[in-house]
Write a structure and sequence with these properties.
Blueprint: H1 3-35, H2 42-65, H3 71-93, H4 100-114, H5 116-123
Amino acid sequence: MPKSVRLATVGVWVQAVLNLAAGALLLAVVSDAVDHGQDEGVGLIRFVAVLSLLIAAALLLCGVLVGKRSNAIRVTVVVVEAVSLVGGVLGLLQGGVSALPGIVFALAVLRGFTSAEARNWFDR
């Protein structure tokens, strides 16, 4: 496995764990709001929580299967990171400077999985 892919895979694992934690935290917020009778407007938060958990599951699966050298794994990671990058840029444009680390992280993982050596390694 090329070094760039190995480092990007570590990034995939970190991002998966962070998405898992964010999804669980958001579901806890939704549960708390519903328990206190404040269930109006929790639908969007619930959607974001479930989406975060699904992304975490996809990234965890990709992290586990990266050693299989399947190009589908590489494409899945690239798509997830591209969506994350777009979301980060949109958040940045709305004045959320806190989106910068996510943008940098997505770019680093994208660079690792889209490099020529990564493409050659995944294509066998």
